[in-house]
Design the sequence.
């Protein structure tokens, strides 16, 4: 790689980080969401796996029912997704919301840097806003 290419990659990485921070701050408040340990979620070995697939798997994959991407931002070495899982196959929780930040390492592998989670209860089973509080 030439010096100019390295410089451009560093500039794009810094710009991507700024955009990621802005995206995180622009999404609805996380005050009612729980921050989860990103080490609990898969780290892909294959650099060809795209960040959207990783976010999909981190939010429950096909077992969690339908998925709605509320916000999606993908850059050169960063990605951010705000995901809604409506109509959960659960008798107490109606929906789940995830905020997932991803980054690409030097080998091109995507990994989870931050993940936030909240759930909304079924009617008559507890809170109707997204919260970490358990449903009844």
Sequence:
């Amino acid at each position: 790689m030439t010096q100019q290419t390295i410089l451009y990659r560093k500039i794009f990485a810094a710009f991507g980080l700024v955009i990621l921070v802005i995206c995180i701050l622009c999404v609805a408040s996380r005050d009612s969401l729980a921050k989860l340990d990103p080490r609990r979620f898969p780290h892909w070995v294959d650099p060809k796996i795209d960040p959207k697939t990783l976010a999909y798997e981190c939010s429950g994959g096909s077992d969690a029912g339908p998925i709605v991407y509320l916000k999606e931002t993908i850059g050169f070495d960063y990605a951010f997704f705000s995901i809604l899982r409506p109509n959960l196959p659960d008798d107490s929780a109606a929906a789940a919301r995830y905020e997932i930040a991803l980054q690409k390492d030097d080998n091109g592998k995507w990994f989870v840097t931050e993940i936030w989670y909240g759930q909304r209860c079924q009617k008559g089973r507890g809170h109707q806003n997204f919260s970490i509080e358990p449903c009844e």
In short: The chain has one domain: 3-121. The helical segments are 3-26, 51-58. The chain has two helices and five strands. The radius of gyration is 17 Å.
